[in-house]
Design goal:
This protein is an alpha+beta fold. The protein is 23% helix and 23% strand. The strands form two sheets. Strands 1-10-9-4-3-2 form a six-stranded antiparallel sheet. Strands 5-6-7-8 form a four-stranded antiparallel sheet, with no helix packed on it. A hairpin with a 7-residue loop joins strand 2 (74-75) and strand 3. The radius of gyration is 22 Å and the shape is elongated.
């Protein structure tokens, strides 16, 4: 074996030995995925949701009590693609939007400090009603009809 062949083998061994480390560094652990979740993570007290819509098309997605207790000002029911946001002007009339950004399809995050939805992919911003306040998104977030019955928040997804 000559010197060049030896160096090639040592280099190949070094690359193959570091491959598992590189793969592990590029994958996230469940703890990291939870930490990277939107600020409005599923809130305590959202309860079990009935997924079948009622006759009027509304689905229960949470409670006003849970929304008011949420530090982020929002709840995200895990069973449906919707974010329920507390209305600062009227706490008894929440807003419901689809969290999918209309620009790239990333899931927007609710940021209480700026009272906006923010897309983590391109920093597009949307007001609590889903309207674009900062591009590059040009279309508003999809909104849903919301009604409150007692303490239950109901959303019509269709």
């Amino acid at each position: 074996m000559d010197r060049r062949e030896f160096i090639n083998w040592v280099g190949l061994f070094g690359i193959s030995a570091s491959l598992p480390i590189a793969i592990a560094a590029c994958t996230s652990s469940p703890e990291e995925e939870q930490a990277a979740a939107p600020e409005a993570a599923p809130s305590e007290g959202t309860g079990t949701l009935e997924m079948a819509p009622r006759d009027d098309g509304f689905i229960p997605v949470g409670s006003l009590t849970a929304l008011q207790a949420s530090q982020s000002g929002a709840i995200v029911p895990p069973e449906v693609a919707v974010v329920i946001v507390r209305n600062a002007n009227d706490p008894t009339t929440p807003t419901a939007v689809n969290p999918k950004c209309t620009h790239t399809g990333c899931l927007v995050e609710w940021h209480t400090a700026v009272n906006s939805f923010v897309c983590p992919c391109h920093n597009a911003e949307f007001d609590p009603a889903g309207n674009v306040t900062q591009g590059p998104a040009e279309e508003p977030l999809q909104t849903y009809d919301v009604k409150v019955e007692g303490d239950s928040i109901l959303v019509k997804l269709a």
